[in-house]
Amino acid sequence: MDEKEFKNRTKQIALRVIRVVESLPNSAAARIIGKQVLRSATSIGANYRAACRGKSTADVIHKLAIVEEEADESLYWLELLVESNIISENKLSALMNEIGEIVAMTVSSIKTLRSKKDDQSKIQNLKSKI
């Protein structure tokens, strides 16, 4: 998946969560959890965009770690909505699966970047010994 597709997927998640939050019942718990999931889910795409503009590999890794955290947090809030019977699992399962895929892809990207960074560091260390 390329950068443009990932940006679109994360934006679509934010838009879907906005619609979910707008449809929540008017209870104290729903309002509080709704605000939390809205904040974390909209942050996924915003932080991915920041990662795309990272100034170094370490900066990109750091920003992708925030994407991972926000996506995982979004899953947590959605799970609470389901487990507290505020909204049915049927209505959220596709969204939760999509966010789970974003978490998995982000973790994979972080691992790849770390391994490339480690490999590059080993090459530089070899050069310094020559």
Number of domains: 1
**Mean of the pLDDT scores?**
92
Report the principal-axis shape: elongated
CATH class: Mainly Alpha
CATH architecture: Up-down Bundle
Helix-and-strand structural type: mainly alpha
CATH topology: de novo design (two linked rop proteins)
| Overall strand count | 0
Order of helices and strands: HHHH
The major beta sheet can be summarized as: none
Portion in strands: under 5%
Kindly report how far apart the N and C termini lie.
39 Å
Q: Considering DSSP H and I runs of 4 or more, what fraction of the residues is helical?
A: over 70%
If helices are DSSP runs of H or I spanning 4 or more residues, what is the number of helices?
Answer: 4
Going by CATH, the homologous superfamily would be 23S rRNA-intervening sequence
**Which runs of at least 5 residues are low in confidence (pLDDT < 50)?**
none
Radius of gyration: 18 Å
Describe the fold and architecture.
By secondary structure, the chain is mostly helical. The chain is elongated and about 55 Å long. 22% of the residues are buried. It has a single domain (3-129), classed as de novo design (two linked rop proteins) (Up-down Bundle), CATH 1.20.1440.60. Helix 1 (3-23) packs antiparallel against helix 2 (28-52), helix 2 packs antiparallel against helix 3 and helix 3 (57-83) packs antiparallel against helix 4. The mean pLDDT is 92. Helices cover 88% and strands 0% of the residues.
